[in-house]
Prior knowledge:
Elements: H1 2-13, H2 16-27, H3 33-45, H4 47-68, H5 71-122
Helix pairs in contact: 1-3, 2-3, 2-4, 3-4
The site of zinc ion (ZN) has 6 residues, from helix 2 and helix 4.
Amino acid sequence: MKKYKKILIKKREFSCKDINRLMPEFLDDSLDGTNLKKFMMHAQVCENCTEEMNVQFLIHEGLKQLEKDDTYFNLQKKLEDRLNEVRARIRIRDRLVTFMSVVVAISGIGVLIMTMLVIAKFL
Length: 123
Ligand SMILES: [Zn+2]
């Protein structure tokens, strides 16, 4: 009980908001002294902050890894390719719609001419 109370008091020293604010510094290893100690005291006992730290750490390390090799560049290229592919698909679709409109219009004129011819024959 006493230990639990102690943890709660220590936890109060840094709020979740503080941890969130200091997370980038912690991940960059630029947090030191009292701040680092308080950070650890809170982060070790707070489930929310532990979870947040896990996510932030994965993102942080992931980005570092991406910058290290060509993965980041490759991903950008992949996105560019995908965008180009989508643009091409939209262009094709637009052309198809235009073509179909022309076909429908021509068909309409055809039907109109046929109707007029049929009517002319019976007059
Ligand atoms: Zn917290």
